[in-house]
Amino acid sequence: MIQELALEFLLNLLRRTIYLNLICKYCISAVEGQISDRLHHFYSYSFILMKHGKKYNEVKKLVERTKAYPLAEAVELLKKVNYAKFDAGIELAVKTNANPKYNDQMLRATTILPHGTGKTKKVAVFTTDDKTEEAKKAGADIAGYESLLKDIKEGKTNFDVLITTPDLIRELAPVAKQLGPKGLMPSPKAGTVTMNVAQAVEETKKGKIEFRLDKTGNIHALVGKLSFDNSKLVENIDALMKAIEENKPIGVKGKLVKKVVIATTMSPGVQVEY
Question: Using one digit for the tens of pLDDT, what is the confidence trace for 216-233?
Answer without folding.
Answer: 999 999 999 999 999 999
